[in-house]
Amino acid sequence: MAGRVNAIVAVFTLLLFGGVRVVTTPTAVASAPAELACGGRTVATASGSAPVALAPASPRPSNSPVLQPLVDVPVPGGPRRFDYQSLDQSTGRLYLAHMGADQVVVVDTATEQVVGTIDHISTVTGVLVVPELGRVFAAAAGDHQVAVIDARNLKVVAHAGEIGFPDGLDYAPQSHQVFVSDESGGGELVIDARTNDVVATIDVEGEAGNTHYDPGSGCMIVAVQTHNQLVAIDPTTDQLVARYDLDTDCQTPHGFVIDAPRRLAFVACENNARLLVVNLRTIHVIATYPVGGHPDVLAFDPSWRRLYVASESGVVSVFDEVETSLIPVGEYVAPHAHSVAVDPATHRVYLPLEDVDGKPVLRIMAPTPPEGEA
């Protein structure tokens, strides 16, 4: 993301403590192995089998707006930059990284009210709630650490790191580990989520944008933006097991999301405003689409099969997934609308906006459903 990249002034030397290991890239990592599979695989996908056959979504009627604003929820902290969001579907709480205010803001999506803040999370970028542990992990880029927050009382209970510029985070349930991308190029940080200890730093050989767990392969996937690649890490061994070059039309892959049942990844190319559809069985790019300038955060509604791509330019591009391709169904434009989240239960869309009439708000949106959906 352009705002975060400008904030990185150096690649920080990682401090290694007892029990922490640095995992370098194996020289024998395959550039294109057969079907990707790691030790934590949880979804059966036979090699070479066809994608899951599900009814395709239909595009919305051309005369209907794709997103309708419902309410702007006032947010504390002043008109400063937001970053990632994370929704706890079990409680309905949405966690916002209010990056410029050094805060994690907690919103109750049922009452549409702010119910808490966690202060002094310096330059908070990524945020991840792990409901099974009752923990929230927040990337405190200003302190080069990850803050661990008790989701019940909203208190910081630990700090993990050091890491140069922590950004995206995701959780591998089979190893109970949180993986954290380092946008300064210092390597993927691995945290034992039960002890809050750093257990590994994995060399991905470049600046990492976002990180996502893929339940279909059991691998952790990382976007290495300096090499226009996706890499795969086995969370049961903390070893890098595969590296894939993306399409030459992709400049700086940063944000992405995964549709695990259909074995697809949607990858946003930050520096040339392209969206790639990647077949995760073959790791081949099967389609590309234009999106708003400097795409950043993506969100996917799995039941509606709808994809949202939020960009630094303020454009939110909306697509419906049909088979293994996408149909553009519209755009929504708002200043600084570069972060997006969706609630799969209600299908509501959440856009934190840093400056609406001089104040920060969380804009809650109602999408027009695909044809045939209530």
Topology record:
Layout: H1 2-7, E1 21-23, E2 67-74, E3 85-88, E4 93-98, E5 103-108, E6 113-119, E7 124-130, E8 135-140, E9 145-150, E10 155-160, E11 166-172, E12 177-182, E13 188-192, E14 197-202, E15 208-214, E16 219-224, E17 229-234, E18 239-245, E19 253-259, E20 264-269, E21 274-279, E22 284-290, E23 295-301, E24 306-311, E25 315-322, E26 325-333, E27 341-342, E28 349-356, E29 359-367
Parallel strand pairs: 1-14
Antiparallel strand pairs: 2-29, 3-4, 4-5, 5-6, 7-8, 8-9, 9-10, 11-12, 12-13, 13-14, 15-16, 16-17, 17-18, 19-20, 20-21, 21-22, 23-24, 24-25, 25-26, 27-28, 28-29
- The name of the CATH architecture is 7 Propeller
- Estimated structural class: mainly beta
- Strand content of the residues, in percent? over 45%
Strand order of the largest sheet: 1-14-13-12-11
Provide the low-confidence segments as ranges: 4-33, 42-61
Level-1 CATH class name: Mainly Beta
Radius of gyration from the CA trace? Answer: 19 Å
Number of helices: 1
Order of helices and strands: HEEEEEEEEEEEEEEEEEEEEEEEEEEEEE
Short description:
With 374 residues, this protein is mainly beta.
Can you walk through the features of this model?
The protein has 374 residues and is mainly beta. The protein has a single domain, classed as Methylamine Dehydrogenase, Chain H (7 Propeller). Helix content is 2%, strand content 49%. It has 1 helix and 29 strands. A 5-stranded mixed beta sheet has the order 1-14-13-12-11, with no helix packed on it. Strands 2-29-28-27 form a 4-stranded antiparallel beta sheet, with no helix packed on it. The chain has a 4-stranded antiparallel beta sheet with strand order 3-4-5-6, with no helix packed on it. A hairpin with a 4-residue loop joins β20 and β21. The radius of gyration is 19 Å and the shape is globular. About 13% of the residues have low confidence.
